[in-house]
Amino acid sequence: MALPFKKRVLIVEDDQEIRNSFSLIVNSSQKFMVVNSYGNCEDAIENINKDKPEIILMDIELPGMNGIQGTKIIKEKSPHTDIIMVTVYEDSELVFEALKAGASGYITKSANYMELLSALDEIVKGGAPMSSRIARMVIDNFHVNPNSPLTKRETEILQLISEGKTYTQISEELFISKETAKTHIKNIYSKLQVNSKSEAIAKANLEKLI
Amino acid sequence: MALPFKKRVLIVEDDQEIRNSFSLIVNSSQKFMVVNSYGNCEDAIENINKDKPEIILMDIELPGMNGIQGTKIIKEKSPHTDIIMVTVYEDSELVFEALKAGASGYITKSANYMELLSALDEIVKGGAPMSSRIARMVIDNFHVNPNSPLTKRETEILQLISEGKTYTQISEELFISKETAKTHIKNIYSKLQVNSKSEAIAKANLEKLI
DNA sequence: CCGCTAATCACGCAAGAAGTGGTATTAAAT
DNA sequence: ATTTAATACCACTTCTTGCGTGATTAGCGG
């Protein structure tokens, strides 16, 4: 393997021991090299244009700015850097926040030698390394509730509401009168116990009705 | 391994050859057995309570009802059956539709012996087998656009709008006057080129602004 | 220091959209 | 035969939006 083309990896992790152990593992590979490591996001952000990492292993719990906030800022400054979160928690809120912030992978600190390197490989080949549990969490998040209280027509209309359509547009699109659209929407509101379009959308997303 | 505890696998696939080859592979494993295989969803749905599969390998392109529609119906009738889509396409629309319908995995027909069995293993241990590209596609879907045209405050307000809040609620929650909330919302509308809350939500989701 | 942007606050008025509360008919499904 | 889903209309109220205008304060970068 051609040495000059090793992928540049940056580590952001406040625990010195973990930092060292990860560095050793990454550097042991023919394909990767650690360009730098920091104990906080602020330093990493400051030096991002100098370090030019292609991949960052990012802790979430950090002194000062946390890893999720840091991920957002780094992705703004360096959009093509892939970030893998490395954390002890598999808490669903944190996972989704991290993914929204721009993370492309999510592994736990218990990752061993092989798991860490295969996560890096996975990133390089355009994938998204995740533990089984995270993968399932993410996929489950897409699932639409099959036990919706809404009828087919109501769901159809709720869908159009979520696309930002007005009463008039909905009625035109479905070839029904505006009054009928209103009736359906009234029924949707009463079933979902809401009283506005945006509340209906919020509830629909929350309960995965669309 | 205890034979009576083999996991029950059902195959829905219209190509006889693929059906046979998948059957052979699955049956070759100590951990899985093919309980039945069908060339269309209709037959699979009809016999679902008799076959009692724990896992279904489901094709998408099928004569009659397609695999996505079939997945929806099967998940209604048998919520605990895990469904893995097996298809030639990795088209993003189809993938997301399949996941919304209730699929827990997504592999391609080119999957070999090992890939197929490890997908089944992955499902059994509560994961979500996917190819690298699909995993990335799914994760990318979470990423929030870091180049939003909106200011921090406007994003904050857009967030509240998406939660179904009224002008009054927004102003109360942010300790600002109703008039100020209106001003911000007007600015949001002009930046997003929309003219209602629900359109703003739609655009925000589309462009991943929140 | 100056200029810009963001964030805040405020008023008014008209038109249209949305929401509330009824009633009612028809077809399909059970 | 009864219920559910889908359709439609009316009347009335309230909220939202469009358009315009103006002003203050804080913070940032040149």
From TrEMBL, chains A, B:
Highest taxon of source: Bacteria
Domain Response regulatory: 8-124
InterPro entries in UniProt: CheY-like_superfamily, NreC/VraR/RcsB-like_REC, Sig_transdc_resp-reg_C-effctor, Sig_transdc_resp-reg_receiver, Tscrpt_reg_LuxR_C, WalR-like
Chain segments annotated as coiled-coil in the UniProt record: none
Pfam entry (one): Response_reg
Modified residues (4-aspartylphosphate): 59
Protein's recorded name: Response regulator transcription factor
Species of provenance: Chryseosolibacter indicus
